[in-house]
Every structure is written in structure tokens, then in C-alpha cells.
Amino acid sequence: MTAFGQVVIGPPGSGKTTYCNGMSQFLELIGRKVAVINLDPANDALPYECAVNVEDLIKLSDVMAEHSLGPNGGLVYCMDYLERNIDWLQEKLKPLIKDHYLLFDFPGQVELFFLHSNAKNVISKLVTKLDLRLTAVHLVDAHLCCDPGKYVSALLLSLTTMLHLELPHINVLSKIDLIESYGKLAYNLEFYTDVEDLSYLQYHLDQDPRSAKYRKLTKELCDVIEDFSLVNFSTLDIQDKESVGNLLKLIDKTNGYIFAGTEGSVVEFSKIAAAPLDWDYYRYPFYSTCMHAYIHTYIHIMLAQASLG
């Protein structure tokens, strides 16, 4: 039995828990049975009904007290512990995958998704052993667009996370309804969602003394992001049903949910596959996992050249 779902990730404050709450309500409204799985051992104030809670296995507060760790080290320990006890999570999920759409609410520590392998291993084992079809939904707070330096950092984080997780991946500018309250954007919103020509940001970066001294490094990083053209953003206002619905349509295309009702029928499958899906392969590109090592190596080479130059 194939099950579908989302891996919800993003930096702290990007709105992951709010997203899971809003998306679960929207899914129920359109008739899908949904189960939210909290895998954040520090998330003790959940606004949604939780089907599986990692705190039943391990709590961050207990780890920090017992091992004298800070929150970052504690989260790494918790995720390592979850990986070693993945059977516990699999048993909890087995009754749900028969008829539920799954939302995985992950911690906000970004190091877990581009430096450490534990979160990736947890996801990979679930995909392999439970035959899950998951899309990574990477939330980035829209206010980062108002600061060119922070925006470039968000692009680099998005790119590294895509390469590390090796899942169908959608980057989302969350809280887009609040973007005007953060300040005036240097360019129109499409510039920040399409990520087409980052050279325009260079002037604005040079106006900030903190960014100007890293001019060459920033340019090389922007070149890396543009050369592979993997990163772009959708937008989301979680309180707007149309906005949530448009994002869900995109997610359904990336994880294959749109084909779930064909039940193996070649005729029905061909009808869907041949029909116009309003799908732009250039705007939302996929990449082969065999390119992962090459791209990862290329980024390190560019970073080394920039630092040496």
C-alpha cells in the first residue's frame, strides 16, 4: 500500500507547525484523511491533533538535563536516537498508511538537513520500508527577501537541503501576506520567486559594509545557485484557501498523488499523463540523484576558489 505525504522542514520561525495545522485542516476539508506526525522533540505546544508524537519516545528537555547538552546538541542526539529506534516509528505509522495522507513536522535546526545524516536516514528508511511517496516542503520566511544578504543565504540553504535530502522538493516563501509589513522590496516579487538573475542584488549588497567585504564570495555563491537553476520558490498565505490549494496541487504533482486513483490501469494512467497539467518543468525542475555528488563537489570547489581569491 503506497502512502503519500509531506516532509515539512525549514528554519525556526518559518511557520512549520502553523503550516502543518493549516494544511491538515485544508486536507480534511477536501475529503482526505490526514495524520500529522510530530518529529520535533522540542515542540511541546502543538496546535494540531497529533497522530504520532516523537516525545513519546524521547524529549529534548530530558536529553539536555541528562547529558548536559544545549538545544542544538540535544536535537542532534534526539534525531540519532530516533534513527536507532526507527522500528518504533514504523510500527506507529503502519496503521495510518492504509488510508491517511501524512504530514511530518520536523525540527527547525537547519544543520539536521545539510550537515548531519540522521534526519535523511530516518526519511530514507521510511520511504524504503513503508513505500512512502514524500515531498519535502521547505519553508522560508518571506521577510528574508527584504535583506539581500539574508535572501542569498536562504537560497544557499535551500540548494544544500535539496541536494542533501534527495527528495522531490518544493521551496516556499511562507507568510507572504505579511511581506509588505517587513519593508519595501528592491524588486518585484517574481524576481525573488523565479531566482533568474542574482547579479541585480550585487548593488544592494555593496551598500551594506558587512556584505561588501565578502563581495567576491557572494558573487561565486550566486553563480553556483544560478548555474544549476534548481532553486525557486512558491508563495504561501496559510490563511488563504486558494493559496494553500495551489501549493497542494503542486505537491500532488511532485509526489505522484495525482496518479493515486488510477489503480494500475494503463488506460487511466495515460489519460492523466497526457492531459495538460499546468506544469512547468523549467520553473520546478527535478534533478537526478546521480548528479548529487557532482553538484556537491562543484559547490565546494567554488567556495574554495572564492576564499582563496
Q: What is the fold's blueprint, element by element?
A:
Blueprint: E1 3-9, H1 16-29, E2 34-38, E3 50-53, H2 60-67, H3 71-84, H4 86-93, E4 101-105, H5 118-130, E5 132-141, H6 148-165, E6 169-174, H7 179-182, H8 189-194, H9 201-206, H10 209-212, H11 215-228, E7 233-235, H12 241-255, H13 266-274, H14 292-308
Parallel strand pairs: 1-4, 1-5, 2-3, 2-4, 5-6, 6-7
Helix pairs in contact: 2-3, 3-4, 3-5, 6-11, 11-14
GO molecular function, one term: GTPase activity
Organism: Apostasia shenzhenica
Subunit structure: Binds to RNA polymerase II (RNAPII).
Shape, per Cα inertia axes: globular
Strand elements, count? 7
Oligomer: single chain
What structural class should be given to the helix and strand makeup?
alpha/beta
How much is the radius of gyration in Å? 20 Å
Return the string of H and E elements. Answer: EHEEHHHEHEHEHHHHHEHHH
User: Cα distance, first to last residue?
Assistant: 54 Å
- Strand content is 5-15%
Number of domains: 1
For this structure, the CATH topology is Rossmann fold
CATH superfamily: P-loop containing nucleotide triphosphate hydrolases
CATH architecture: 3-Layer(aba) Sandwich
Q: According to CATH, what is the class?
A: Alpha Beta
Enumerate the strands of the largest sheet in spatial order, edge to edge or round the barrel.
3-2-4-1-5-6-7
Major beta sheet, specifics?
Answer: 7 strands, parallel
Tally of contiguous helical segments? 14
Helix content: 40-55%
Mean pLDDT: 85
Runs in which pLDDT lies below 50 for 5 or more consecutive residues are 279-291
Family: Belongs to the GPN-loop GTPase family.
Keywords: GTP-binding, Hydrolase, Nucleotide-binding
GO molecular function, one term: GTP binding
GO cellular component, one term: cytoplasm
